[in-house]
C-alpha cells in the first residue's frame, strides 16, 4: 500500500511540476517574441555615460557654438555613438554637425550632418557604415556644432563627473566646464540577449527537474536545498548583474585588495590609498548600478570570452572599506583563482560571485541537516529572493547570513539532539560567534539561544557558566579586533559632539541623545515602526531588489508569506519550547531589532528626521527563523504533512515568476 501511495504521490508531483514548467515556458516564449526580440534589434551600448538618478539637467545649444568633449573608448571597435538630446517644436531649419576625432592623430573618423525636424527626448544614434577600429583607453573627441537654431530649444543632457568617469568634462568654445554631456558608444546590436535568455530558461527548468527527482528519490532536504540554491543562484547571478546589489562596488574593491594581498601584489596607491587594479577589474570603471539590456549583453558576452577588457593598463578603483573581516573570504578566493587563470573582467566578477554561492550552499547544507524540526522554515528563508540577491554578490552577507542560520541551527541541535556538549561543539560555536562579531556584531545576541541548553549537557552549571563566559570573550574579541574604530566613532560622533554632515546644517543622533533627548529618540523609534513595518517585511523577503529599482509583483510576496505560514503552523512538532523559552527567543529577536535600529539611528539619522534612516528589511533576515520558531503553537495547526512535499516546487515556481518579471523589466530599458 505504501508503495502504491508513493507512486501516486510521485505522479501528482510530476503532473504539478509539468504544469508549472509549461506555464513558465509559455510566459518566457511570449516575452521572447515581444520584449526580448525587440530589445535584440536595438544597438548595444558598450558604455553609457549618463546620470540615471536625481534631477536631469540640460545644456542649451546656441548658434555658432562649438561643444566638444574628450572621451575614452571602452572597446577596440565601435559602430556608432549616441547623444542624449531634447528638442521640440522645431521649424525644420535647425541642424547639428557631429564629428568624432582621434585626439592623438587629429583625424576625423566620421562626420554626421543631422537635420532636426521632429520632437525628441532621448538618445540620438549616429552610425558608421561599417565598424570603426579604435584604441581602447585612448582619447577621442566628440565635437558638436549647431546652426539654424534661432529661438528654438535644442538641449544636451548633462552628467556629473566622477573619479572613474571615462571623460573629464565638456568644453564650450574651448572653455572647460565641470560637467559633461551624456553619451554612449555603440558596438553592434543586442542579439546576444538570446544567450542570457537561454540561461534563465535552462536554470529554472533544470532546477524544477532536479528538485523533483530528489523528492521522488526521498533525498534529504539539505540535498534538495543545494540543487535548488545552485540553480536559482546561477539565475540570480545573471539576473542581478554585478554592481547592481547595493554597495557592491565598494565590496568588490575591498575583495580585490584582499586578493592582491593574498597574491603578493601591489594593493593600494601610496598617495591616494585607492586599490590598484589590473585590467581584469576594469568593469568597475563602466559599472551600471541600474541594469539595462546593455548590461546583460556585456556580461553574457564577457562570460563567453567575447569582450575585451576596457582598459589596457593598471588603474585605480577606490579606497577599500576599512573594516577587514572574514565575510569576504569566498569572494577573495574566487577573484584570486580568476587572476591566476588570467580571466577577463566579466569572468573574474562572476568567479567571485560563484565562490560566494558555493560557500553559502555548503554552510546551509549543514544548517538544514542539523536543525532538529524546523528544516523547511530555514529552507524557504534561505531561498527567498532577497536572500539570494545578497548571497550571490560581493556583499559580506553571503557569509554573514550563512553563519547566522548555521549558528541558530547548531544551537538547536545541541539543545534537542545532542546528549553531551564536547570541545568540538564549543570550538564550532566560538568560530561562528567570532565570524558574526567581525562582520556585524548586532547579531551576537543570537548566541544567547545557547543559554536554553540544559546544564546537564555541560556536566553542571559551573561548566556551563565558564563556557558561556568564554564565548562572550570570543565575541568581544572579534568586536575589538575588527570594529574598534567604528565603535569609537559611534560614541564620539553625533549630537553630543555637534558633528554635522551637510554644510553644518544636519546634526546626527549619538548615544548621548538617549540621555539629553529621550522623548525625541522614543518618538523616532515608534514612528519608524508605525510607517515602515510593512515595507521592512516586503524588503526582507523579496522587494525591491538592486538599488530599489527592481520591483517585485505582490503575488511573489504573498506566495512567500503563505509558504512561511504553512511551515510555521506545521502539525506534529516533535520538539518544543516551553513558554519561558519562547519568551527568551522573542526577547533575543527584539534585542537584535533594537540594535539594528540603534546602529542606523546613530550612523544615518539626523535630529529632526521622522523615522530612522537607512534600515533595510534584509537586516532582519538572520532573526526571521528565530521569531517564527518562538511564536509557533500547536493550538492553531494546519494539516501540512502532504503539502510539505510540494513546498519546494511552489517556491521554485514563485522564483520563476520573479525571474520572469525582473528580466522582462530589465530588457525593456
From TrEMBL:
Coiled coil: none annotated. The chain crosses the membrane at residues 12-32, 193-216, 223-244, 348-368, 399-416, 428-453, 465-485, 550-568, 583-602, 608-629, 649-667. It holds the Pfam family DUF2142. Keywords: Membrane, Transmembrane, Transmembrane helix. This is DUF2142 domain-containing protein. It comes from Dorea formicigenerans. The lineage of its organism: Bacteria, Bacillati, Bacillota, Clostridia, Lachnospirales.
Amino acid at each position: 500500500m505504501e508503495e502504491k501511495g508513493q507512486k501516486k504521490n510521485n505522479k501528482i508531483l510530476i503532473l504539478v511540476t509539468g504544469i508549472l514548467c509549461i506555464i513558465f515556458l509559455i510566459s518566457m516564449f511570449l516575452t521572447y517574441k515581444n520584449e526580448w526580440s525587440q530589445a535584440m534589434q536595438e544597438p548595444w551600448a558598450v558604455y553609457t555615460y549618463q546620470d540615471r538618478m536625481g534631477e536631469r539637467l540640460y545644456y542649451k545649444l546656441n548658434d555658432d557654438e562649438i561643444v566638444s568633449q574628450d572621451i575614452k573608448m571602452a572597446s577596440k571597435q565601435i559602430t556608432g555613438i549616441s547623444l542624449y538630446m531634447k528638442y521640440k517644436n522645431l521649424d525644420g531649419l535647425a541642424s547639428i554637425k557631429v564629428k568624432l576625432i582621434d585626439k592623438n592623430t587629429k583625424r576625423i573618423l566620421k562626420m554626421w550632418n543631422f537635420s532636426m525636424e521632429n520632437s525628441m527626448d532621448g538618445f540620438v544614434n549616429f552610425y558608421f557604415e561599417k565598424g570603426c577600429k579604435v584604441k581602447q583607453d585612448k582619447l577621442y573627441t566628440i565635437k558638436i556644432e549647431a546652426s539654424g537654431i534661432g529661438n528654438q530649444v535644442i538641449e544636451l543632457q548633462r552628467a556629473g563627473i566622477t573619479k572613474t568617469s571615462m571623460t573629464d568634462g565638456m568644453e564650450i568654445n574651448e572653455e572647460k566646464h565641470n560637467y559633461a554631456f551624456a553619451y554612449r558608444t555603440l558596438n553592434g546590436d543586442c542579439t546576444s540577449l538570446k544567450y542570457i535568455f537561454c540561461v534563465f530558461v535552462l536554470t529554472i527548468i533544470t532546477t524544477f527537474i532536479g528538485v523533483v527527482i530528489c523528492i521522488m528519490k526521498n533525498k534529504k532536504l539539505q540535498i534538495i536545498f543545494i540543487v535548488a540554491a545552485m540553480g536559482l543562484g546561477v539565475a540570480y547571478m545573471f539576473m542581478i548583474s554585478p554592481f547592481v546589489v547595493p554597495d557592491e562596488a565598494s565590496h568588490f574593491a575591498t575583495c580585490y585588495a584582499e586578493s592582491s594581498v593574498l597574491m603578493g601584489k601591489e594593493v593600494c596607491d601610496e598617495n591616494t590609498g585607492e586599490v590598484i587594479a589590473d585590467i581584469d577589474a576594469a568593469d568597475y570603471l563602466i559599472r551600471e548600478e541600474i541594469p539595462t539590456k546593455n548590461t546583460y549583453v556585456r556580461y553574457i558576452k564577457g562570460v563567453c570570452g567575447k569582450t575585451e577588457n576596457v582598459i589596457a593598463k593598471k588603474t585605480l578603483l577606490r579606497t577599500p572599506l576599512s573594516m577587514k573581516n572574514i565575510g569576504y573570504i569566498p569572494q577573495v578566493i574566487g577573484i584570486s583563482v580568476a587572476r591566476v587563470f588570467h580571466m577577463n573582467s566579466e569572468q573574474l566578477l562572476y568567479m567571485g560571485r560563484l565562490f560566494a554561492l558555493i560557500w553559502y550552499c555548503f554552510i546551509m547544507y549543514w544548517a538544514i541537516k542539523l536543525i532538529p524540526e524546523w528544516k523547511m522554515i530555514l529552507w524557504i528563508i534561505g531561498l527567498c529572493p532577497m536572500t539570494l540577491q545578497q548571497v550571490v554578490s560581493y556583499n559580506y552577507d553571503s557569509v554573514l547570513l550563512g553563519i547566522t542560520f548555521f549558528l541558530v541551527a547548531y544551537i538547536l541541535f545541541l539543545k534537542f539532539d545532542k546528549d553531551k556538549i564536547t570541545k568540538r561543539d564549543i570550538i564550532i560555536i566560538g568560530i561562528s560567534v567570532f565570524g558574526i562579531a567581525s562582520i556585524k556584531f548586532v547579531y551576537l545576541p543570537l548566541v544567547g539561544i545557547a543559554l536554553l541548553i540544559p546544564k546537564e549537557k555541560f556536566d553542571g552549571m559551573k561548566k556551563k557558566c565558564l563556557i558561556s563566559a568564554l564565548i562572550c570573550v570570543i565575541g568581544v574579541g572579534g568586536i575589538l579586533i575588527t570594529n574598534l574604530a567604528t565603535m569609537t566613532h559611534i560614541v564620539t560622533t553625533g549630537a553630543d559632539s555637534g558633528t554635522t554632515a551637510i554644510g553644518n546644517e544636519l546634526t546626527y543622533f549619538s548615544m548621548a541623545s538617549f540621555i539629553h533627548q529621550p522623548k525625541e529618540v522614543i518618538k523616532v523609534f515608534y514612528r519608524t515602526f508605525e510607517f515602515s513595518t510593512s515595507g521592512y517585511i516586503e524588503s526582507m523577503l523579496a522587494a525591491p531588489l538592486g538599488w530599489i529599482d527592481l520591483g517585485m509583483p505582490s503575488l511573489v510576496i504573498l506566495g512567500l508569506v503563505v509558504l512561511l505560514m504553512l511551515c510555521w503552523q506545521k502539525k506534529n512538532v516533535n520538539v518544543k519550547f516551553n513558554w519561558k523559552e519562547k519568551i527568551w527567543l522573542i526577547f533575543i529577536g527584539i534585542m537584535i531589532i533594537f540594535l539594528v535600529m540603534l546602529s542606523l539611528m546613530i550612523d544615518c539619522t539626523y535630529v529632526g528626521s521622522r523615522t530612522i534612516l537607512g534600515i533595510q528589511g534584509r537586516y532582519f533576515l538572520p532573526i526571521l527563523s528565530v521569531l517564527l520558531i518562538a511564536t509557533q503553537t500547536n493550538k492553531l495547526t494546519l494539516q501540512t504533512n502532504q503539502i510539505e512535499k510540494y513546498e519546494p516546487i511552489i517556491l521554485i515556481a514563485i522564483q520563476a515568476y520573479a525571474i520572469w518579471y525582473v528580466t522582462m523589466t530589465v530588457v525593456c530599458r
